[in-house]
């Protein structure tokens, strides 16, 4: 048996490859990820937005951080970001 036959038997074992994959979209998951909404302009931002991005957004309106994001504590966000950054640098191997 040649290599071509082996490849065909492998394809047959894996299943029907003639079926086309259904198109999938990430739009719904992207919308769900936008859970930080500005209280002033109602613009949604990604849940992964850092405190600096939120501060810049508030400065666009000439408002304070607390006016645009009343449900977020700036000091806690910065402390969490620093802790996460410390974990990343701790895990990184030392350069030789």
Automatic annotation (TrEMBL):
Q: Which species is the source of this protein?
A: Diatrype stigma
Where does the record place the region Disordered?
1-29
* Ranges of compositional bias, category Polar residues: 1-10
> Which superkingdom?
Eukaryota
State the InterPro entries in the record: At2g23090-like_Znf (IPR039438), ZNF706/At2g23090_sf (IPR026939)
- Report the Gene3D superfamilies cross-referenced here: At2g23090-like (4.10.1050.10)
- One Pfam family of this chain: zf-met2
Q: What name does UniProt use for this protein? A: At2g23090-like zinc-binding domain-containing protein
Query: Which residues does the UniProt record annotate as the domain At2g23090-like zinc-binding?
Result: 37-71
